[in-house]
Amino acid sequence: MKHAPAYFVFALCASLMLSATPALAFVIRNGNTVNVAKGETINDTLLATGQNVTIDGDVKGDVICAGQTVTINGVIDGDVLCVGQNISVTNSVGGSVRALGQSVQISGTVAKNVTVLGQSVTSNAAIGGEMLFASQRASINGQTARSVGGAANSISIDGRIGGSAQFKAESLTLQKDAAISGDLVYSSPGVAAQESGSQVRGTITHNVVAPAAPANANSAQQTTQQYAVKKIQGLAVSLVVALILAFFFKRLLQKTIDLMLARPGHAFGWGLLYLILTPIIAIAFAITLIGIPVALILVFLYIAALFFSRIFSAVAIGKKITQAYWKSKQDSLIWQVIIGVVLMWILFAIPAIGWIISGVSLVWGLGGIYYLFRPQTV
Predict the structure, then answer these.
(1) How many CB atoms within 10 Å of residue 338?
(2) Which domain holds residue 135?
């Protein structure tokens, strides 16, 4: 994702977080494997979380989902908002698709807009609105009724774009079936490769950018050292905060992780809902002058919850590890804190997959915080 510029990532995240408006009524499905069978119809918004989420049936509302592998083959009347490692949407979506994952594939039809952030993005869909993406590799096929914008290391266009197109890429290829009705504006080190048969009806504007300079040994070593120092500092701060919680707020910390471990799937689902709804509610309050103080309080609490959520998840993992492999320390909250925080922050630092682990732990921890204040729902 290092090739996607900050403004594209910000725009995508803002759209993912603030454009979704899930209904108040919803159906929750969670577990290791979640399946909505073919022929089944859900008449409310579906909140599905699990390692493998498969939706073959139809949903008459929105779909909010998170999992390692998410496959949506059914007809969705509303929006699709999904986070996962591998995401595939293959049928008809009556609203918009917003997805965050390592590999995202969109086909079928999407009535409104598509917003995607992923390492690999492939669109073979007929999109009724616009498309916005940020990725390392992007293949835009099918048809998009309006404009398309995105940033990636390599972008391949082999479909029809009804409006304008704006890209930032190291390499851009217009294959033979590519057709852009509006203008094409792109930023890249070299001229786009345009195969015979491809069409751009508007003007083509090429903004030349310098290619990324190859890193020498010294700069690479310095960058690695800076990265390591940053991660160690983050680990140290988190460990200190977690130990303070363990010493001075022992019961609160134990209660939170016990609630998270009791029903992890439900905690993850509520955490995802909290992650999405809180900014929307804060903006709704901020629209009115009398609601601004409430919005500020919500934002403050939201930021605090985001900070503590990964710590709660790490301690919960530490408890499971001590219970399974270190029986003599299974009742020691201090050792649960140390083992969990150190292990999880090491996993967070792994390139490519660390951000996924971090995101999952953040959502799970938010669910634990929710259950802390609503213990009767567990």
Answers:
(1) 20
(2) 6-208
d(CA 83, CA 63): 11
Q: In the prediction, which pLDDT does 160 show?
A: 96
- Cα–Cα dist 302/290, whole Å: 20
Half-sphere exposure (Cβ direction) of 308: Cα atoms closer than 13 Å: 22
Q: Does 229 share its domain with 302?
A: yes
Beta carbons of 92 and 75 less than 8 angstroms apart: yes
For the chain, which ranges sit under pLDDT 50? 1-24, 375, 377-378
The string of pLDDT tens digits covering residues 134-157 is 888 999 999 999 999 999 999 999
What's the total number of domains in the chain? 2
Q: Are residues 362 and 296 in the same domain?
A: yes
Q: Do residues 161 and 230 share a domain?
A: no
Question: Long-range pairs for 281-287 at CB < 8 Å and ≥24 separation?
Answer: 283/18
CA distance 191 to 187: 9
352, part of any domain = yes
Whether 1 maps to a domain, the answer reads: no
**231 and 333 in a common domain:** yes
pLDDT of residue 182: 95
pLDDT of residue 42: 94
Q: Is residue 70 domain-shared with residue 192, that is, in the same domain?
A: yes
One domain for residues 229 and 182: no
Q: What is the pTM of this model?
A: 0.62
Which residues are CB-neighbours of 330 under 8 A, at least 6 positions away? 319, 322, 323
Q: Are residues 150 and 239 in the same domain?
A: no
DSSP-derived secondary structure for 71-135: EE-S-BSS-EEEEEEEEEE-SEESS-EEEEEEEEEE-SEESS-EEEEEEEEEE-SEESS-EEEE-
Exposed (0-12), middle (13-18) or buried (19+): which is 17, by Cβ within 10 Å?
middle
Q: Do residues 190 and 266 share a domain?
A: no
How many residues does this entry show for the chain? 378
State the Cα angle at 142 between 136 and 146, rounded to 5°. Answer: 85
Task: Judge residue 143's burial from the number of C-beta atoms within 10 Å of its C-beta, 0-12 exposed, 13-18 middle, 19 or more buried.
Answer: middle
